[in-house]
Amino acid sequence: MSRTVVVLAAGQGTRMKFPLAKVLHPVLGRPMLAHLLEGLAPLQAERTLVVVGHQAEAVAAVARAYGAETVLQSPQRGTGHALMCCREALASGPEGDVLLVAGDVPLLPVEEVARFWSDFEERGPEASVVGLHLANPFGYGRLIRDTDGALLRIVEERDASSEEKAVTEVNSGVYFFRTPRVLDLLEGLDASNAQNEYYLTDVFARLAERGTPARLFLASDPERWLGINSQPELARATKRLRLDVLDRWMTEGVTVVDPDSTWIEPTVRLGRGVTLHPFVRLCGASVLGDGAEVRSFSCITDSELGEGTLVKEHCVLEATRTAEGCILGPFCRTREGTVLSGRVHLGNFVETKKARLAEGVKANHLSYLGDVTVGAGSNIGAGTITCNYDGVHKHPTVLGERVFVGSDTQLVAPVTVGDGAYIGAGTTVTKDIPAGALAISRVPQKTIEGWAERKKARQEASEPTKTR
Ligand code: UD1
Ligand code: MG
Which ligand number lies closest to the CA of residue 201? Predict the structure, then answer.
């Protein structure tokens, strides 16, 4: 039997009260639609269709990144109408099962979905719906059953009577249907309801009328099936996923000193013996090697830290790679293309960009190192700046091995400094320096003995007499 997944993702998400299509809102760093599509991958459906409408291009881009086809729904006239828009695409495919899911359920537990789907495949009937028990069912469609438990209909919050509102069993928005029969059920749906929309959920009353009521699956962990409709719900889903990810890493032996304030995105990978202090944020494709330690208020994005690397407080690392034993911070910022060999030290207020620093290089204070290559064992003094930009182009700076750069040096690129060279403090380097040389460009110091006293005397003589 062929398997198709249909994801409804065309709605605006009015209740979010935010100018971004709902399914694009990030949950722990990734759009909710991306979570859903990645989560569903193990089902190995032959096809995945994503219905797009509001901000269609941006939503379609996420869909395509996960190999899904897209179907345009314009205008968006409700969940039933969204499925109607798939009619052609579904009719062109083989007969089989459809898993229909709203795009706003990022935490969907795929193992349970798979179990329900197999069960549905084996035992039918034409349609099934996944129900949730919620202590507070507000906002969700209520499942109205007869005394034998058969599903009579689904009533939306806005259309429900007070008696129906008291029902605590709700529609998760996840369904299984058999094609092509589901398409017939959509014929003649109408929009005579509080929202003037074509409700997909009206299909269930039709099934009951026909004497083939839908089967109900009850989810074991309702929180993970909840559709996100508002900002508080988005924040709760993010928190739930964040804690799940942290739990997984702590179970693997990672020390998370304060799980309440630690943020690890699902795409991050951690080695053994990693320690994370409070208020650490690890994002994107970051990988932390064994024994790495990250201290408070540091944020690491798309970066790889070598074994035993220590990132002290308040560092911001982006697209950076470090080898083993590096020490960064506090307060350092490494930008794209920073590549540090073993045991490099970057101290406070050091910024790097496209910087390749070889084994043991130290830049401990107040520097900007951009478009630079530094050989092993070199020392970059406090306040060293690579002047890499002439207003039009960026130029490289190349320092050899064991170069000593005195404090407050400006390296006006392009410039090359040979192995073992010394640069005196306060130097503006505008010409290449050969290996082993000393370069110094500052004005020789002049010292005038007794100058301050004489200045004071001159001032006093020229001032009118002070009255006390
Ligand atoms: C829907 C269900 C409700 C259920 C709840 C579960 C209906 C009528 N109601 O309500 O019974 O309890 O989900 O979370 O189906 N969408 C489109 N095109 C549209 C409208 C919506 O693609 O024209 C998409 C949205 O982008 C969203 C999904 O369908 O991803 C669900 O829409 P939403 O507005 O969130 O429906 P709910 O009111 O939550
Ligand atoms: Mg919803």
Answer: 1
